[in-house]
Amino acid sequence: MRVLRPFVWASVLVAGFLYITSVAHWDVGRVLQPVRTAGRAWSEPQTAQTAGGFTADEQNNIDIYRTAREATVNITSRVIQEDWLYGAYQAEGAGSGFIINPDGRILTNYHVVKDSASGGVSVTMNDKQTYKATILVTDRRNDLALIKIDTGRKLPALPLGDSDHLTVGQKAIAIGNPFGQFGGTLTVGVVSALDRTIRTEDSNLEGMVQTDAAINPGNSGGPLLDSHGNVIAINTAIYGPQGNIGLGFCLPINRAKAMLDQVSKTGKFSPPFLGVSALPITTEIADALGLPSQAGLLVQRVEPGSPAAEFGVKGPNRRVILGNYPIGMGGDYIVAIDGQSVEDGKNSLAAVMGKKHGGDMMDLTVVRNGRREILKVKLGSAPQQL
What we know:
Elements: H1 5-22, H2 28-37, H3 56-71, E1 72-82, E2 88-99, E3 105-108, H4 110-113, E4 121-124, E5 130-139, E6 144-148, E7 171-176, E8 185-199, E9 204-211, E10 223-225, E11 231-238, E12 248-252, H5 253-266, E13 272-273, E14 276-281, H6 283-288, E15 296-302, H7 307-310, E16 318-322, E17 325-329, E18 333-337, E19 340-341, H8 348-353, E20 361-368, E21 371-378, E22 380-381
Antiparallel strand pairs: 1-2, 1-4, 2-3, 3-6, 4-5, 5-6, 7-8, 7-10, 8-9, 9-12, 10-11, 11-12, 13-22, 14-15, 15-18, 16-17, 18-19, 18-20, 20-21
């Protein structure tokens, strides 16, 4: 029996080999397939992405960025400060700006250049070339500044759009220089709200555009663009001390256009000055306060010696508490400006003032002691400050 055992095993092996190779159609590739694919941790798209494979919205972002980044600049202001031992040292602040004219005129925020009188302002272009800038005009009330560089060549400029007809929900694209080092950064969002009022270190900014496009430190002064690449606002402030949380505020570009038009015509800028602080009142709040049942602006303060005081605008004489908020009462209730009614819940005073110049007349329709009056006020000129 032992003699036959090797022959039996040989017969089994031969039969198995014949079965595998001729009957079972055995494929070595199928056996090794799991081994071949086990190490791959990703999969390829069925259709490869090409230069023309972007969505229409993506291509719109790309086209706007390619154009706008050439006209968006980095602005560095140098100021001499003192340390705690009264030693002098040079500090730097950084922001953004954008070219509005081929001759090198640049719009930015006032707070970007306000401390630069002792050290100067430098502008760095997208090609990394740096030029010394001259400050032409400042408007502290609107946080605006116009500066100029001389490069000896024509520069790319951004077109200025119309901020009077913005709509909540429309696309908004911000370009700037966040944190002073990441130049040419693009963020995309929408216009989140209109006619916002925010308090800054230098002034109260009214009629601001709110956006969720990320605006980080260093973006100040950069452009906020629409889907056509037109500047609709200037990136100005963010809500919260720790950087962007989706609440950015931008100055409507028409406020800057009014300043530019006056500088173009007269060679100087005379910011209008009224001297009134007013609280926007909706129809519902007006009813609760016993005011005429219409939207308006309730005067909260009249600055002594101001045009408003000179031409008879009345401030409050008592205070009431509404929802834990103190409100001055007894003053004039402004219901129309230059014959146009104040829109419900909106402070149109800032928008109107943004189109006025020092010396212009303004008609204020006020309700005083239940009677409607029209006050004709001649605006003063706010002093230029740097």
